[in-house]
Structure prediction request, 592 residues.
Amino acid sequence: MRRLGLAFGLLFLWLPILLLVGYAFSADRIPFQWGGFSLRWFAALAANARLLEAAWLSLRIAAGAATLAVLLGGMAGWVLARFGPFRGRAVFGALAGAPLVLPEVVTGLSLLLLFVVLQGAAEAALGWAPERGALTVLLAHATLGLAYVAVVVQARLAGMDPALEEAAADLGAGPFTAFRTVTLPLIAPALAAGWLLAFTLSLDDVVVASFVSGPAGTTLPMLVFSRLRVGLTPEINALAAVILALAGVAVGGAAWALLRRADRDRADRDRADRDRRDPARSSRRG
Amino acid sequence: MMRRAAILLPPLLWLLLLVAAPVAILAGIALSEAAPGVPPFIPPISPEGGWQGTFANLLTLVQDDTYAAAFLRSLVVAFVTAVLCLVLAYPMALGIAAAREGWRVPLLALVLLPVWTGFLPRLGAWIGLLRDGGWVNGVLLALGFTEGPVPLLYTDAALYLGMVHAYLPFAVLPLAATLLRRDLSVEEAAADLGASPWVVFRTVTLPLSLPGAAAAFLLVFIPAAGEFVIPELLGPPEALLVGRALWAEFFQNRDWPLAAALAVALLALLILPIRLFQRMEEDGGSRRGASPPSRGSGRSPEGPKP
Prediction:
């Protein structure tokens, strides 16, 4: 019964995706119609300059936004996990968590209004203001990513033993050395996961980008959305298959790295346990 | 002290500028008057003109039945989506929790991976599956259930299929986490005392999983209430939801103050569920922080750390 429910749910989640990928290799002009195996839609994709341009723009925005998000979100996560109670902590936490719970249309509209006001101020002060476009999308996506990174880093720090850093300090490490040699390696998986999360979030966002972007900043999701409004074409079908393959490789790779790391951690813990039970052996080895 | 400030200030300033200020501006513009120009509104307060604001936009939302209907419909769609997700997610989470230890992480990954494959490609798949000459209609025809194509795309059914498909992983995650953390010995004790499997489930497992179910519900309900893309691509064209109304006022009618008023009203409606969700997260977070799961419990019987 439980297995049946799980199998049904997984089938529901995966069937449309697998069919989409399968039919991307169909020669037929109508999507989801089998007309023999063909790579023609992938070739058409590779020849579509507008689409490639949008994809390249989206990748650059996503990489920049994710990097900013890791820097700022890492600091925010640190503040929330390690600063203890301080005045304004509740406000800080609410602000850092807000992008997670605000509806997309609200985030998009409010950020656009901010950019318009800033542009107006720049116009009045300097007589010139930068146009909205890639930069404003990047700033918006960095803000969304910040919130996700902060949660991941905070959770990782909360599950970490502060005694490790204290031990480093006791052994004479300065605060920076302790951070670099002890804390940073321990939170590195959280930072990597946060970067990946922010990166894919940015690559996937159509609502916020549509609000804050300008005429020169059409991202890939914005382009795909405008095409899908008219209906699915085999080219978009092929594009979806490519995105799926890339996401599969990225997430599969990350999962593999995490599992390997978990294995190594478990082996380390087991060894530490054995040593504790049998100190003679560990002292022999040391 | 300096070091603390150096860590606190960059994210704090960023959040003040890009989270707090936009929401404040949004509220301000909701109180302003629409006017032709760039940007298309008169600021509610200015050094020259003083107070020029108006409550007309917020009043419009209350007085115009179209918007009241849009809000009601959005809440219904979000509620139904969240309930459907819970119904599907519960057996899935139970199945993951009951799986052998080595299988749990891969199964969870299988549930979450569709999220990472992108939102638009999945909607594209539904468009291809549900349209008149699409795959689902082909299957129905081949099985002899229908004579001609059944209109599926741009209906409420398509809307809910797309919504549940998009949000289901977010419902499975908190449920599975809660069920994995539960103490199995309580259920064993109930069974030992003669309770049937169904009674064990109803009196022990279900109540224990309620916090996870509440988190799952809110995690779907909150974003679903403002959803724009799925109704736009799959739903009936005439169905006005808040997300679509806001989008139309902004992009088609260029009525920024009314769009801002819609956003403020949506926030006001969602503030209660949002606060509830954050409270639950804080509670769960501190409990998790106080006793890290699985790690300590396996080792503590061996005595204190050296």
